[in-house]
Automatic annotation (TrEMBL), chain A:
GO terms for molecular function: electron transfer activity. Residues 24-214 form the Electron transfer flavoprotein alpha/beta-subunit N-terminal domain. This is Electron transfer flavoprotein small subunit. It comes from Dictyobacter arantiisoli. Gene3D superfamilies: HUPs. Coiled coil: none annotated. InterPro entries: ETF_a/b_N, ETF_b, ETF_beta_N, Rossmann-like_a/b/a_fold.
Amino acid sequence: MKMFVCIKQVPDPNTAISKLDPATKRLVRSGVSLVLDPGDESTISAAIKLRDKVGNSELVALSMGPASAQEATRRALAMGVDRAILITDPALAGSDAFSTAQVLAAALKKEGADLIFCSTESTDGYTGMVPGGIAEFLGIPQLTFAREITIEGQKAIIKRVIPKGYQTIESTLPAVITIASGSYEAIYPTMKGIMGAKKKTLTQMSLADLGIAATQVGEAGAHERVLSIGKAEARAAGQIIKDDGNAAQQIAEFLQRYQLL
Amino acid sequence: MQSRLKSLPPARVAGNFSNEASQNTRLWRGSIAMVESPHAAHQAQMPVVTDLYNIDMMLSDEERMVRDTVRKFVRERISPIIGEHFEAGTFPRQLIPELAALGLLGMHLDGYGCAGLSAVCYGLACQELEAGDSGIRSFISVQGSLAMFPIFAFGSEEQKQLWLPRMARGEAIGCFGLTEPDTGSDAAHMRTSARRDGSSYILNGSKMWITNGGIADLAVVWAQAEDGIRGFIVERGTPGFSTSDIHRKLSLRASITSELHFDDCRIPATQMLPGVRGMRGPLSCLDEARYGIAWGSTGAARACYEVALEYAKSRIQFERPIAGFQLVQQKLVGMATELVKAQLLSLQLGRLKDSGHIHPVQISLAKRNNVREALHTAREARSILGANGITLEYPISRHMNNLESVFTYEGTDDIHTLIVGQAITGESAFS
């Protein structure tokens, strides 16, 4: 089985203080340390686990970004992905979710994928639209918020996180599966994995390789425009329950209101 | 000059030079060329405060990945629990399988299930581990450099096959027996003896201050044989071999320190390391471990500096952050400067080791400097944190106390001074 995991390099959420450029209204990505999205580390871990369980399968990491995003793909290779593809082209700068999905889908079509894993959303942009876009461009089903995945023949079965618990759903293959955050613990690359990563194949693809015109993507082809940016509202103070004998009941009601009970 | 200095806006004094050469900045022209330089517009971005000389740029992708992976592991798995272990005086044994799975045991050895990291990668891993705790780095140093390395370098093929893969997997823990109650720096005069008796050796004597001793499945023990100092592999459970842990320590509390006792302990002659005789054996192991310590101590120093800097920026006294006070800045700048120097020393030491051109005197100089400065940094950081600095809520006093041991073990600060002294003068101060 041919499996793909889509990954992204983002400003390190553990060290970087996110800054927004008031002119472009976009996240500032220069001058900050860039890392493989920590959410993607969990997704890669889920994909590796499934590849090893299914057996006789290849897992490929697919990313779109500047040449410096190689470092993120290397990390995926060190974690245990078999090979990696980085789509990089100057014309891609400023691509929106639509273009990103279009480009990733083109590469996936060219490669031929049975199963495509994505994180639910990236840690920097949080649009959450790319996985759905990929599925749409490829004309295949999308299974979202997976916390458990099983492959049976040509069928994917997932346990899907919903507010009240989970649903079990199944789909034909090929399919896009998004991983619910927190469902899979990220594995650490091993020292041997890091040493072995440079022996694995990292392929670079350009827009020409994918048959996409420069005008369709990047700033030029963007359908999406950030209109304004503003400060997030301060969080409201939490509710403090004082125990007058019925605190337990109040807590139960509170939990019920959020469908946690 | 004093009065002119005062008239400068604070930002200019702080070094925020620009092209707008005002009357005041012109006064500085002689000493600061950047003010009117055509290159001023390309002035580089302010580097991150823990890497003021952009050492990060001098590392390869692979080296950065090793560092970042170990840093993440330390942040997620070690830092949250290490304070409790330090207080309880226990080693977090539950971490051994995880450290092994990461490939950190014997990481710089090649083959036999080891990762085969470069010297620089090994150093970076030590740096990150010791940013967590010197006790954890000590565990790794002893397993890899003091127990696995002598088997790797001087062992027979059978010994390597038997022990190294198991030790890399963390299924067998090793320790290193050189120091004795009566011989520390003067290890060549050790009293532990190995008497040949047919196809066996009989060991007698004791070893002191042995990291990992109490949990070790095997000890690499150095003893006086008829033909000079020899190394022996002694397995736990061998009749005549026992260990007892040393308690009431105020340093390296999250690490096991033990005594090893040999009382007519008979071991097969096949457990002698055939590849080395004399002090070259233990000293070459110590070079490996000291190399890791030179790097490791910079991790502890960085951790103290980071905490002190953050604390100074948020602690308000006299209605302003204490980071704004000159005396505090002097301490912070001293810490930052020594950190950068130690990091550069470590990196060049690593490059020398990877190129095969390292000399032991370079290791001595770096171990001496970096541990000494890390200890000083920890003490300065403690003073910035005031009373908070003495608690386990912050890592400062833990690092400070640990570094007192690091200052002494693997060649005391004094001995390293004399090694460098002998190397540059040609005069030995030992005898």
